């Protein structure tokens, strides 16, 4: 089945990057916690009560918050090292073949992690089956427009230096597709909305450091394996748009909810 799915992302590279990032999480913990809080605020919109939860990719920002609400939490990640840092009962997973049985959890939270999955419709279907009847699926993922400034600057800089460009920023789904993916997986009452968050950097190199520390660097299968020109990143970062003299990077965080009827 996996052979029939387009391998847009290199799963081994994703795992290696998250392994390395597990030791650097402290440098981006504040950002990750803020983004997780925006997602978990959706729990206050429901009167449902949850006892058992699965969180995927929370990187230490989700499991403690769920545990503080009285839930027993399993923390899953593509990296065993990251799963151990996450705060719940750790489980390393292959996103294309999730190890959880049917109707195991009341709540599943996938925070900024499913955008690395090649077979996203298949993963969503597996996740719905792991929810008990009446269970809630809550997820966030970058949507189209995320890091658009960096993508454009890198493409222009590499074209200037090499006469061509390699993909260096992941493709992201359009917000309109997110609710459709939930509906296709059989979720009831699927909803997708977006929070647009602008990050400003006095030193734009900090953006690259933060992406690396979060385990969010390039893992596109079609990426170039060649060493990039030394001038590539300085040139691209110098051409990022500015606001009040600081470089701009945008996260368009899609927030998705669906129920297992």
The CA-CA distance between the termini, in Å, is: 27 Å
H and E string = HHEHEHEEHEHHEHHEE
Number of strands: 8
Number of domains: 1
Helical content band: 25-40%
What is the overall pLDDT average? 94
What is the helix tally? 9
Contiguous low-pLDDT stretches (5 residues minimum) are: none
The biggest beta sheet is recorded as: 8 strands, mixed
- CATH fold topology: Rossmann fold
CATH superfamily, please?
A: Vaccinia Virus protein VP39
Overall outline: globular
* Class per helix and strand makeup: alpha/beta
Beta fraction: 15-25%
Radius of gyration: 18 Å
The appropriate CATH architecture is 3-Layer(aba) Sandwich
CATH structural class: Alpha Beta
Structure characterization notes:
The protein has 261 residues and is α/β, with parallel strands linked by helices. It has a single domain (2-259), classed as Vaccinia Virus protein VP39 (Rossmann fold). The chain contains 9 helices and 8 strands. It has helices at residues 11-21, 29-40, 63-67, 80-86, 120-130, 148-162, 175-184, 205-213, 232-238, and strands at 52-56, 72-77, 89-92, 105-111, 131-142, 188-201, 242-243, 246-259. Strands 1, 2, 3, 4, 5, 6, 7 and 8 form an 8-stranded mixed beta sheet that branches. Strand 1, helix 3 (63-67) and strand 2 form a beta-alpha-beta unit. Helix 6 (148-162) crosses helix 9 (232-238). The protein is globular. The two termini are 27 Å apart. The mean pLDDT is 94.
């Amino acid at each position: 089945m996996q052979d029939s799915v387009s391998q847009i992302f290199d799963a081994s590279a994703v795992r290696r990057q998250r392994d390395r990032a597990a030791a650097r999480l402290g440098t981006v913990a504040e950002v990750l916690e803020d983004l997780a809080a925006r997602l978990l605020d959706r729990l206050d919109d429901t009167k449902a009560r949850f006892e058992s939860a699965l969180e995927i990719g929370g990187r230490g920002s989700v499991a403690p918050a769920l545990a503080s609400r009285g839930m027993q939490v399993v923390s899953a990640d593509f990296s065993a090292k990251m799963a151990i840092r996450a705060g719940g009962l750790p489980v390393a997973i292959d996103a294309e073949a999730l190890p959880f049985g049917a109707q195991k959890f009341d709540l599943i939270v996938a925070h900024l992690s499913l955008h690395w999955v090649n077979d996203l419709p298949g993963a969503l279907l597996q996740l719905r089956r792991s929810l008990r009847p009446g269970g809630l699926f809550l997820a966030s993922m970058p949507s189209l427009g995320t890091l658009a400034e960096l993508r454009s600057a890198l493409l222009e800089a590499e074209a200037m230096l090499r006469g061509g460009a390699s993909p260096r920023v992941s493709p992201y789904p359009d917000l309109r597709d997110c609710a459709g993916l939930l509906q296709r997986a059989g979720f009831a009452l699927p909803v997708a909305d977006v929070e647009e968050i602008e990050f400003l950097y006095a030193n734009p190199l900090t953006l690259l450091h933060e992406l690396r520390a979060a385990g969010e660097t390039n893992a596109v299968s079609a990426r170039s394996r060649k060493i990039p020109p030394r001038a590539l990143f300085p040139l691209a970062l110098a051409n990022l748009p500015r606001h009040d003299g600081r470089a701009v990077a945008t996260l368009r965080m899609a927030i998705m909810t669906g129920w297992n009827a």
